[in-house]
Amino acid sequence: MIPRYLVDFDLRQLPQLHTEVIVIGAGIAGLFTALKASERHKVLMVTKKSLLDSNTRYAQGGIAAVISDEDSPAYHRQDTLIAGAGLCSSAAVDVLVHEGPDGVKDLIRLGTEFDMEDGHYALTKEGAHSQRRILHAQGDATGAEIVRALSEKTKQDPNIEIWDDHFVIDLVTEDGECYGALVQKPDGRRVFVRADATILCSGGAGQLFRYTTNPDIATGDGIAIAYRAGADIRDVEFIQFHPTALCYPGAPRFLISEAVRGEGAVLRNINGERFMERYHPQLELAPRDIVARAIVAEMESTKSTFVYLDFTHESEVTVKHRFPTIYDFCLNYGLDLSSDWIPVAPAAHYMMGGVVTDLHGETSIRRLFACGEVTSTGVHGANRLASNSLSEAIVFGRRIMERIEQLPGTDRLATAGQESPKRKDYAIQPIVERKLKLQKLMVRYAGLKRHAKGLEKGYDELKRQLTIFDTLLSKREEYEFANLLTVALLTTQAALIREESRGGHYREDFPERNDQVWRKHTVFNRMNGTTEGRIDDV
């Protein structure tokens, strides 16, 4: 159904170059892993836009790590496991909570300036955390500060070469081993980059949905190319919808950080009533999936397209100091965070599933590694704990380097090629129309609330788009659409298979969580089909 390669090519006909490590993507995972790799290796970083374009840049809340004396790895572990709703890998969570603090020290060493209070790092609390353990920067610009510090270091590093505006079409594999990537240059020419180790850091797939907090580059490329290459893909039915994205005419779905609720903001429906007490004892700081569904329930019962976030109890000075980015952004649209109720609604935010890796970031394909949101390490389970994503990227980025040190060199040349059937060069419906149709289908049938009938309809309609794979593709947006379609099909299929509700997956026809039957993973492999993954007992 989905072919091995997106384009026809013959390696013997292509220009080739060799690097020791190729890093695909430029968020915190890509930047940090490239810097770690460059300590001992020549690194090529390939980004489809630029170093500053990634989901990381939009991360407001911060990074979760045990810094305070009142906190402990045991508390952080427990919070992560509870949020993950029974699907976390306890071994992966242990790695995260014990190695996170050292990862944060690495970020500080590399120039990240976290906010301080009275000579100590300022820590805040977010939803489902039992302790204050979120480090932040410039109030609510943590991701931007991390990207600033790391990209400056990356540009200065003599061992790192950066290719902006290049697109990785596919990974080149042979006999279960990865030999590098097929890359398209800005002028349309293609090159085979041979590498001793290939690291996917290409981020998530928020563009599956019409409304998302993700930038337009989040098109699921890494998951799709890993799937075509034969890697295991796991738990893609679990998609986190952030409860509070700005919902205002003319404004993008800008993220209003959970930290705003952490500092006391409350949710009100359009009648002005505070409603979270009807849904969960933790009120506004309940796990994200519960808050998002509660908001949708209120929107449906009041026939509205949004609810309000009310932070007006805080002084203007405090609001401006703690959340300068959010304050300024809202002000551009005539909304004052300190005196107005802000209209918000849920939007697709983060994918818990992805390419399966072991505890050193290695996939089921030799020499292929993955780091960050593109992965399924086992840390997040069915529902990511707030601010664990940035920690995961640095912790597993460090571990990937440990494994790469042990890799034997390879002199063998891959001979892969895509010969027949040749693709046809015929007119296709404009990609922008196809993409919008896919996004609307996903919102309608595979969004916050799902049921069998809708998922089946959505899956059937998505399958009609499969003709894209028989077409001669040559542009970035065409590759992106093919990748989005691949991930949409896998997500819809996984959501259909899982007949229960858990974490970021909610089935109206199976509203209860069923541990007896469904405490397991859904794993897809292009060659082996669908299998179940075991849970290590917690």
TrEMBL record:
Pathway this chain belongs to? Cofactor biosynthesis; NAD(+) biosynthesis; iminoaspartate from L-aspartate (oxidase route): step 1/1
**Which intervals hold domain FAD-dependent oxidoreductase 2 FAD-binding?**
21-390
Pfam short name (any one): Succ_DH_flav_C
Q: Quick one: where is this thing mainly located?
A: cytoplasm
List the EC numbers from the record.
1.4.3.16
This enzyme catalyses: L-aspartate + O2 = iminosuccinate + H2O2
Subcellular location(s) of the protein: Cytoplasm
* One Gene Ontology molecular-function label: L-aspartate oxidase activity
Question: SUPFAM superfamilies, per this entry?
Answer: FAD/NAD(P)-binding domain (SSF51905), Succinate dehydrogenase/fumarate reductase flavoprotein C-terminal domain (SSF46977), Succinate dehydrogenase/fumarate reductase flavoprotein, catalytic domain (SSF56425)
Q: Which UniProt keywords apply?
A: FAD, Flavoprotein, Oxidoreductase, Pyridine nucleotide biosynthesis
Q: Give the signal sequence positions.
A: none
Cofactor(s) needed for function: FAD
**Any idea where the Fumarate reductase/succinate dehydrogenase flavoprotein-like C-terminal domain is?**
437-528
Q: Identify the PANTHER family for this entry.
A: L-ASPARTATE OXIDASE, L-ASPARTATE OXIDASE, CHLOROPLASTIC
Its function? Catalyzes the oxidation of L-aspartate to iminoaspartate.
NCBIfam families per UniProt: nadB, PRK07512.1
What family is reported?
A: Belongs to the FAD-dependent oxidoreductase 2 family. NadB subfamily.
This protein is called: L-aspartate oxidase
Q: Which organism is it from?
A: Paenibacillus gyeongsangnamensis
